[in-house]
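Give me C-alpha cells for this 365-residue protein.
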Amino acid sequence: MNKGEISQYIRIFVLFFVIFIAFVLFLDLCTYALEFSATSYLSKLITTVNNPFIGFCFGILATAILQSSSTITTLAVVMVASNTITLEYAIPIVFGSNIGTTFTCLIVSVSHYDKSAEFKRATTTAFLHHLFNIICAIIFFSIELGSGLFSNLSYVLGKQLKTAVGSGYFNTVNPIQTILDPVKKLIVLNITSPYILLVVAIIGLYISLRFIVWFFNNHLMDYSSKIFKPTLFQNRYKTFFTGLISTAVVHSSSTTTSLMVPLAATNKISFKGAFNFIIGANVGTTLTALSGAFSKSETAISVAIAHVLFNVIGLIIYFYIPKTLNTTVTIASILARFFEKYRLFFLVYIAIIFFIIPFLLILVY
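Here you go.
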C-alpha cells in the first residue's frame, strides 16, 4: 500500500467519522427530547406494572419511545433494586424492550423510501433484526409465564455472580459521548423547548442518514470488497464480535445496528453479514445494564442477567439450529417485497406493532 492509498483511506475515514458523529448527535438529541417529555410519565407507569403482560407491553412501548433498550433495562434494574417492582414483572419488561429496540432500524429504512431496490434491501435488513427479536421475545416470554425459567435461572446466576465479583461497580468510558456531550449541552441550552428540539433532531437525523447513504454509494463502492468483506465481515464470528465490541464501546445498539441498514441497502454487505453484526450488537448492549447492576442487589443483577440470557440463547438458536437464519431471511424478504409495493402500510405496521397494540393491551390489563 503506497502513500497515496493511505492518504485516501484516511480522508475517507475522517469523512465517515464526521457524518457518523452527526448521526449519533442527532439520534442522542432525539432521545433526549423524548426522555425530557416522557421519562416522568414512563417512570410513573412502570410503578403500576403488576402483571407480566403489562410489563411486556411497557417494554415495547417505552423502548420505542426512548429508542434505547439499555435505558429501559437499566430502569428495570433500578426499580427492582428499590423494590418498586418484582423480578417476575421486570423480566417481561426486558423481553419487551428487545422488541422495542428494533423500532430504530425500521425507521432508518424509511430514509430509502424513494429508491425501490434500496428500500427493499433496507427493510429486509430491518426485518431481520425485528423478526429475530420478536420471535425470541414471544418464545421466551411464553416459557417464563409457564415455568418461571428465566427468573429462576437469572436469580441463581445473579446470586453466584454477586458473590464471586462483589459489590464493585464497573464503569466504562464512552468515547463518542465524551466528544458529543459539550456539543449536546450547548444545543440544549439554546433550544429550551423539547418539542422544537425534537423537530430539529428528527430533521438532522434524516439529513445525516441521507449523507450516510450518499457516502456508502459514492465512497465505498470501490472499497467494500477490500475493507468490509475481508476484514470486519470476513466470517460469522468476526462479524459477531465486531458488533458486540462496537456496541459495548458506544453503549447503544440503536446506533450500531441502524448503520447496518444503509450498508445492506447499498449492497455493501450481505443480509447474513448484517444479521451476524446485529446479533453481536444485541449482546453488546446487555453490558450497559449489567455493569450498572453490580452495585445493587442480587435481584437487580438478575434482571441484567435475564437480558444477557435472552440474547445469548437467541444467538445460539440462530447460529446452530439448521435453516433458522435462512428461514428468517426468506420471511424478511417476503415482508420487504410486500411493503415495497404498499409502502404506506409499512408506516401503519410500525405504528400498530410499537404503539397501538402495546398501548391497548396495557389499557386492557
